[in-house]
Amino acid sequence: MRHVIALDVGGTGMKAALVGAAGELLHQARRATGRERGPEAVVESILDFAAELSAHGERHFGVPAAAAGVAVPGIVDAERGVAAYSANLGWRDVPLRDLLSRRLDRAPVALGHDVRTGGLAEGRVGAGKGADRFLFVPLGTGIAGAIGIGGRVEAGAHGFAGEIGHVVVRPGGAPCPCGQRGCLERYASAAAVSEAWAAASGQPEADAADCAKAVASGEPNAVRVWQEAVDALADGLVTALTLLDPRTLIIGGGLAEAGETLFTPLRDAVRRRLTFQKLPSIVPAALGDTAGCLGAGLLAWDLLESTDPSEVTT
Fold first, then answer.
1. What is the DSSP string of 238-288?
2. By C-alpha distance, which of 114, 79, 91 is closest to 45?
3. Closest CA to 88 of 190, 13, 195, 197
């Protein structure tokens, strides 16, 4: 059976799959990234994992993988196949596409940014299926975004498209590691809500999920913390909607697990801020933590469909 290798590399763990031509997950596996051993060890772990997946596929399906797709965090030069920078993994300018291709007997390899890759999957086979234009915004430790247009995800001229977490929503506000003050992710990410609720509740270990539970029970301080985050998020999203005019807005990540505790006030807050803009459908992501793997598989199949394999190996 024809298949591709899909790898989703995170800060602490890797998710992988063998993906069939119809997008079906034929085999799934997980492994620790091993970042405590340093950036070179992380790269070697990725290469070893890919080789094991390749061997598994050949044993079970009778043919080697036709291609591979890999999603990585940080700054990604997808055109050159280089993982340019990742603070979490400690690497700079890693030629990951070429390294993987050599380990996989010159199989073609597609490299993508983790959020854009997850957004590709959500747009094609997840919550945005059928939408010609969508915006995928996962609310996790930070906030990023993926701009979907006609079944593709826009990377931008320099690979930075979709960085909605660094739209300034509170000018002069909290400092952000990016160098600005008042960035959206300092107010509406899961990490920001966790920090605010830990301070408000006097419980250092409390997190965003705890805050959501307290909101559902009507705890006044939790409601205040939550509404401040929702208001900041709505401000950032309306800026994005004004620029991009998506048909569907897909919200994912840890904060979206609160369900209607998030979505009901968020839809209301966005609606109140609109003037001439059209309100998109605001829906939860559908694929959970499989989005990255599915997206990496889609990248690999897209590569096979659009390019002669001899042109993508070195």
1. HHHHHHH--SEEEEESGGGGGTHHHHHHHHHHHHHH-SSSPPPEEEE-SSG
2. 91
3. 13
Residue 122: CB atoms within 10 A of its CB come to 29
Provide φ and ψ at 143, rounded to 5°.
Answer: -135, 130
Q: Rounded CA gap, 244 and 260, in Å?
A: 25
Distance CA 76, CA 71 (A): 9
Closest alpha carbon to 4 in 16, 14, 18: 18
Residue of 18, 34, 116, 113 lying closest to 68 (CA atoms): 18
State the 10-residue block means of pLDDT for the chain, 314 residues long.
93 90 90 86 92 94 94 89 85 93 94 94 93 95 93 88 95 93 96 96 96 96 98 98 97 94 98 97 94 94 76 43
Q: How far apart are CA 238 and CA 169, in angstroms?
A: 11
Buried b (16+ CB within 10 A) or exposed e, 34-44: bbeeeeeebbe
Q: What is the dihedral of CA 7, 292, 130, 286, to 10 degrees?
A: 140
Residue with tokens 């700079």: 92
